[in-house]
Amino acid sequence: MAGDIMSAEAILKIGQRLAFFSDASDEKYTSRIEDLSEKEIVAAMPMDRKRRPIIPIEGQHLYGMAFANECQYRFFSVFHKKGMNNNIPCWWISKPEKLERFQNRAFVRVRVNLPIQVQAMDQEGGFLPPQMTQVIDISGSGVSFVFDRALPIESQVIMEVHNLPEIGTLQVMGRVMRCSTVELDDATKRYQIGVRMLNLTRPIRNRLVRYIFDVQRQELAKGVGLSGGPT
Length: 231
Description:
Blueprint: E1 4-7, H1 8-11, E2 17-21, E3 28-36, E4 40-44, E5 61-68, E6 71-85, E7 88-94, E8 98-102, E9 110-111, E10 115-120, E11 131-138, E12 142-147, E13 156-164, E14 168-183, E15 189-198, H2 202-222
Antiparallel strand pairs: 1-8, 2-3, 2-5, 3-4, 4-7, 5-6, 6-7, 6-8, 9-11, 10-11, 10-13, 11-12, 12-15, 13-14, 14-15
């Protein structure tokens, strides 16, 4: 099930396969755990496609995956230093407290309160003037928001999600996947529109997933439940 939060101690083991993703490209860098301590992971230094070592700057945030029990576990870490461990070039990185289990391309979604500007498609295939509204929840692949009218399934929208940490304003096209009514009171009807975001680059998706992961950890610390299932 996507979105299960697991402790690092239950998942991370010496010899385990890892992968890291760059915020600057789509490339995935493979690695493995060479050693573990209470606060750090010693990971074999990844190489790029030309077999050149990848050396982040000190303090750089890393988006990684661990593979275990036929599942993938994503996590975020911070690069500390490089060096040799048993004659193997390695990274020393922070050990995460928690990892999120996920499968395939599913993303857990979290409830947030963010402003969003939406331009809905008109009947001629153009776009109507922008309207400001509020995000209900967001994932690494989709977003849902409150709207004052129903939108046709499979129609497209232009969206600007504001105030996203590390991103600022996310400008993206989307395709409407769900539309349901939201009863605010006896006299007011609104609609919850679920949209799949189109053509997100990996660097932007990495930053978005990192933000969502941080929200998850805050919610879990407060005992707040997550939305059920991926967007």
